[in-house]
Fold:
Amino acid sequence: MDQTLIRQIVEAALLAAPQPLTLAQLAGLFPEDEPAPPGSLEQAIADLREASADRGVELVEVASGFRFQVKAEVHGWVARLWTERQTKYTRATLETLALIAYRQPITRGEIEQIRGVSVNANMIKMLEEREWIRSVGHRDVPGRPELFGTTKGFLDYFGLKSLDELPPLAELKDIPELEPQLPFDIAPAGVASAALAASLDDVADEDGETDEDGGHDEDESADEADEADDQTQDDRTVETTTAHSHPEAGDDAEPEQK
Structure:
């Protein structure tokens, strides 16, 4: 089969698909009696990446596969197409999400111990409904508290291929208590992989949820409850996924019984 045709098929599929596609899914587009030659799909991906170097979109690989996305340089203009109200997250929500991302698997009690305040149940529910976090088991201690970890949907949303691409903790200057349990010494790959750090800093600053000394607003619980109601209005940016990541639960965790 001609390589040009293969590239066109791959490009059309990636543009038409509502979610990222893996190489296996792309290979499934070709009939069994005329499969894509070995290495041809990888070559098509490489060619499309090179061809989009001077375009307003780029081909990236995230946790769920490959996708085209708007480049950060032009996102500010393209975003004017979306007129619906965007959800803004409180500092408490962003701190909780960062703790789960860097310290997973982690319990709600451990999050509260680090943050020094209680974690609103609506906030955890909202993060689960957005498919950014999920239960990965229970801590083997009295009470068997639930353990939380991030999902592939979380990685896809922030343009990350794996947890190794999380921004270095030095960029999360507003949460000095964090200490990673995983080796996050790999620098972010491009602008997209820095989205988490930008969200934890810029978005929260816009909300003004903390004072200068890091104290939390008295209305934090009310704001978190509002987020659970507002988040459904911003689902255009979240790609639905049923495949989730499986972080290690550690020696002191047991798998959740189904």
The longest helix spans residues 3-16. Residues 3-81 form a domain with the Arc Repressor Mutant, subunit A fold (CATH 1.10.10.10). The CA atoms of residues 62 and 161 lie 4 Å apart. DSSP finds ten helices and six strands in the chain.
